[in-house]
Amino acid sequence: MPLILNLETATKNCSVSVAEDGVTVSLKEFAGEGYAHAEKLHVFIEEVLADAGKTFADLDAVAVSMGPGSYTGLRIGVSAAKGLCYALNVPLIAIDTLELLARQIAVEEGVIIPMIDARRMEVYNAVFTPGFTKLRETKAEIITADSFAELNGPVHLCGDGAEKCREVLGNSGKFVYHGNVQYPSASQMSQLSYNKYKISDTVDVAYFEPYYLKDFIVNK
């Protein structure tokens, strides 16, 4: 009965869950206007373990959201995950952040496009089937009126980058905006990390890096 700690810090949502056999037994998350991950992440980790009646020594693996997303948020999450894996001698599992967003939507037809805000009219996005198979690679894309013209509807858009696209893409019947789905959550990581754990789909703790997608630029 593997116990896995899941860390999601790619967006404004600082989210932590602990799961047993792929089922979330404790979840703690907070999505504020600013990024408070550095202050909240380790507190949340201790709280979910205590709530589940577990200790660090009980963990069989640590899973982390791999990106794309906030450069700082991803660094904080991956650094914490690596530190725990080293200290506990447990494997590290990496989970696609956009898939976590996509899995918050249940639809039967069309495609799902999870979007993470990358400022202005740019978003990180990928295209998934209703069964969450990735149809198109993850990329950073500036949204225009012609974006996704090649896709047949309905096109389901979710994430904190989706709503700002409404003004450009319009309200035609082709696009469906899921405004209730804003951020990826560690609650969606539980089953995915368990599935990867069962087949030993892990990453090298020493060399793993988050999927930033774009170079980090310091604004001066």
Can you offer a commentary on this structure?
By secondary structure, the chain is α/β, with parallel strands linked by helices. It has 2 domains: about 5-95 and about 185-200, Nucleotidyltransferase, domain 5 (2-Layer Sandwich); about 105-180, Nucleotidyltransferase, domain 5 (2-Layer Sandwich). The chain contains 5 helices and 10 strands; from the N terminus they run βββαβαβαββββαβα. It has helices spanning about 35-50, 70-90, 95-100, 165-170, 190-200; strands spanning about 5-10, 15-20, 25-30, 60-65, 90-95, 110-115, 120-130, 135-140, 155-160, 175-180. The strands form 2 sheets. It has a 5-stranded mixed β-sheet with strand order 3-2-1-4-5, with helices on both faces. It has a 5-stranded mixed β-sheet with strand order 8-7-6-9-10. Helix 2 (about 70-90) links the parallel strand 4 and strand 5 (about 90-95). Helix 1 (about 35-50) crosses helix 2. It is elongated.
